[in-house]
Amino acid sequence: MIKVTFLGTGTSQGVPVIACPCPVCHSDDPHDKRLRSSLLIETKTANVVIDSGPDFRQQMLRENVLHLDAIVFTHEHKDHIAGMDDIRAYNFIHQKPMDIFAETRVQHALKREFSYIFAEYKYPGIPQVNLHTIENNKDFHINGLSFTPIRVYHYRLPIFGFRFGDITYITDAKYISGAGLEKMRGTRILILNALRKKRHLTHFTLEEAMEIVRLIKPETAYFTHISHQMGFYREVQAELPENVFLAYDGLSLTL
User: What share of the chain in percent tops pLDDT 90?
Assistant: First the structure.
């Protein structure tokens, strides 16, 4: 059994956006409140988070995540890595470093952004980590949970989506290669970014995400990394096919 929880489903600024006067940002519907995108995966043997953005602390408290084995990073943008300092709490509780999985380029970014963590002389109480390198065509395992990296492109930036079991999670994508699509085939639950309806340089639009859904044909699909420009949750959801959903913060799925 695998349970996934959407810790956040928003884009880099979240929803509401600071100082934005738009109706979506002032909606009373909790489905329209979105923290930065992140996913919690739970099995009998592993608790793993994909991406620790600026809202990581709030997300862990909201979902009462008492144990965390590892963080897996899709890429190095701040809305996906900025909360990594807060793993200190798990270091203290579990009395061991946190396992971090990222490709080499992302590791370089983590060392730059969190230089104090990797300094030769470490300040007392800083986060403790074990770095593990993700390679493009090699599966990796965390406490019995197997991950298949899927290379996608965030405009020109190569990043990773991941398949684990019959679930595929892809965020911040604008292009997926044929090889990447092949890795996705047979997915029962597809989680994919859909920023807004209007064309965007670096993210799938709602229609572009729907094209991937029609190609892969999962049992169900959920869209994430959603901007306030998408519109109201209830209005957009009413436009979608019966097996396609806008994800929302706190939504949990079990497979």
Answer: 98
The backbone torsions φ and ψ at residue 31, rounded to the nearest 5 degrees and listed phi first, read -65, -20
- Is the pLDDT reported for residue 122 higher than 90? no
Alpha helix segments (H runs only) across the chain:
56-62, 78-81, 88-94, 104-113, 178-184, 206-216, 233-239
Contact (Cβ atoms closer than 8 angstroms) between residue 49 and residue 71: yes
CB 211: neighbour CB atoms within 10 A?
11
Architecture per CATH, 3-138+145-246 = 4-Layer Sandwich (3.60)
What is the tens place of the pLDDT at every residue in 224-252? 999 999 999 999 999 999 999 999 999 99
Using CA atoms, how far apart are residues 21 and 23, in angstroms rounded to an integer? Answer: 7
Residues 52 and 54: their CA atoms lie apart, in Å, by 7
DSSP letter at 122 equals P
* Token output for 65: 């995540």
Instruction: Output phi, psi for 162, to 5 deg.
Output: -140, 140
The full set of domain ranges for the chain reads: 3-138+145-246
Q: Binning pLDDT at 50, 70 and 90, where does residue 12 land? A: very high
CA atoms within 13 A on the CB side of 216: 33
